[in-house]
Every structure is written in C-alpha cells, then in structure tokens.
Amino acid sequence: MKKTLKTIQTILVGASLAASAVISSAHAQTWPEKPIRLINPFAPGGFGDTVARPLLDRLSQSLGQPIIVESHGGANGTLASNVVAKSPADGYTLLLANLGPIAISPALQPATTLDPLKNFVPITQLVSGPLILLVHPDVPANNLNELLELARKQPGKLSYGSVGAGSTTHLAGELLSQRAGIDWLHVPYKGAAPVITNLLGKQIDAGIVNISLAKSYVESGRLKPIAVTTLKRSAVMPEVPAIAELIPGFEVNPWWGLMAPIGTPPAVIARIQNETMRIIQLPEVAERFRQSGLEPEGTTAQAFDARIRGDLKQWQELAKTNKIIMD
Fold first, then answer.
1. What is the torsional sign of CA 131, 184, 190, 78?
2. Has domain 33-128+254-321 been given CATH number 1.20.1560.10?
3. What dotted CATH number matches 131-245?
4. Which of 164, 221, 242, 247 is the most buried (most CB within 10 A)?
5. What is the pTM of this model?
C-alpha cells in the first residue's frame, strides 16, 4: 500500500511539473500582451537612463509592446528592489538591476535589504562601468606601485575621495587597502562632481570615479590616471593599466543588468535574454554605450547569476574583515 501511495505521489508531482511547464510555455507564447514596466533604482537623468536609453526602443519593437521606465529612487536603490519583489511574477515588471542595491547593500546592510538570490531571477548583465583611480598631478606618484609606496610611508595621511560611503568607489578603495596592505583616509562625497572639484583643488590626494567622468580631465592633463579597477584595461582608456596587473584578481566592476521577480516563467526570461543580448551586440548600440564610458556585456542568465554570487561573496568578506557597517 505504501509503495502504491508513493508511486501515486510521484506521478502527481510529475504531472504538476509538466503542467507548470505547459503553462509557462503557453504564457511565453502570448507574452507580452500589455506594456512592460522597467523599474529604475535611481533618479531620472542618471546612469540608469544612460543604460536604458540605447536599449529600450529596440527591445520594445522586438517584443511588440512599450517598455515604460519608472524611477523609484531612494534608500541606495533598494526601494526599487522592493517594488519589483512585490510585483506579480508574470514578466510585466522588470528591475534595472545595479551592483549597489543587488550585491553591496545586502552585504553591508543584510538586516534591512532583500536577499537578491531569494527574491529575483537574473536575466542578463547589460553593461559594466569601469572605475578609475586618479591623483592630482602634484602627487609624486606616476603609477600604482609608487602610489602604494607613498601610502605606506605615511599611514592614514594619503586621502582618497569617493562618491559616498558604501558606494562602489568607496569599496574599491577599501578593497585596495585590504589587498595592498595600506592605510589611507577615505573622504566620502555626495556624488562625483565634488570629488573631481576637490581633487583639482588639492583638498584630497586621490579620487575614484567612473571612467567616463574622468576622461576629459585626464586628456587635458589636469588629473593623472593611476589605474582602472577592472580585471583588464578599459577600451575607454586602454593606455591606463588595471590594478589587477599589480594585484592579481583585483576587480571592482560596477554593472547594470535586468532581473525579474522570482517565479517569472523561464520561457519569458529566455525570450527577454535572447532579444536583449542580440540588441546589445549591434555595433551602433555597443558604440553608444562606450561613448558613455560603459562596456556592453549581454551575458547569459547563468553568467549573470555567477557574477552576482561572486560579488556578494566579495563584499560580504570585505565588510567583515574591514569592519564596514552601514546604518
């Protein structure tokens, strides 16, 4: 009797899974039947719009429905995550995901931030945005090794500016401190503009900002480039070495991607991924991203999932070892 009951249960589970697959496939064949919401975690006019703009018109045409961008800025981008996590998993609400709210905030503020692995499913990484370490021309260091030696000679005195506590630029400096064994002073600002201004004015010795914001200052000689934070050199400034050339494996590579609420039909995820990857590979789209200092990616969902898990682990370990706590 027990064996018969177990067989019946197995059959029922199998039938349920098969039915779910059929429903998912049927949903994907009719999806989308109405406009799609793309939730931007930051204010209008920022990098979120820069990422979305080259993509959305073509993706709307491919899917046959408009894609409406809704900005839900606040709480370091986590408000948008909450909006998407609470939305139906039907493919009509997507998250314009960013490294900060998806991998950094959960590492630094685990008690108040959603677990991205339990609440969202990755679709594709859209772009990455290299950071660059800069110094004022008067700083007596022309490369990373010289800058690190300068920091070691005067512990706690050499200063670097970031776009804010808990930002990728702040954590890039913290990771460099940990990996290179230096003690330097973090000076947080509210955005990249004051970092550049105070670096030019010599109120700080170094700064870490998005490479696109630094390009004109480097080309004019007003600021001196030291290194980029990506594993390899950036196509935006190929002459600037990567930190990883001196410190193997060093990488802080801010990214943007697409995610959906957990439970969104796999067939819908696959369709969005395939269409998006095709569009990102178009030469004119890739060039628009690069003009904004962004590197086009267009990864598989599996590769994006691995990126998120790797970043989560890195920032959790850094927060623990460097005792970084955000209120």
1. positive
2. no
3. 3.40.190.10
4. 242
5. 0.85
